[in-house]
Amino acid sequence: MLSNQERDAGWHVLCTVAETGEHQYPSWQNSDACISRGGFTAYDIVHDAVKHGVICFNPTKGSIAQIYIEPQYRRQGFAKKAIITAKNCIETPTLGILNVSSDYEVLGCVLTHMGFSLLLTQSEMIYTL
Hints:
Elements: H1 4-20, H2 32-37, E1 41-47, E2 50-58, E3 63-69, H3 78-89, E4 96-97, H4 105-113
Parallel strand pairs: 3-4
Antiparallel strand pairs: 1-2, 2-3
């Protein structure tokens, strides 16, 4: 079993590699560095000059990688408006959202209500130490 120090050192190495792009090692697919390398750009979700969240998407791929709304601004339609804005900026006939967690049912309901359909399901693997 790794000590916390060894685990932290390994995390630092992987993050540094992901951020600098010096090597082609596997990385966390939703880390900021991986998203930017994949051609995704983060856009602030702003209303009345106040930042309410962020959306990361790639208009060329027609794909949203992340969307986040600050807790105090949720359930006010900001995610929906950001998704509609992304839809109006894409260059593809479809808009996809990556890795929608089944644990967060609210997002799934919003997306279904907006007309999104489930393309596939994924499995998450775990290794017990």
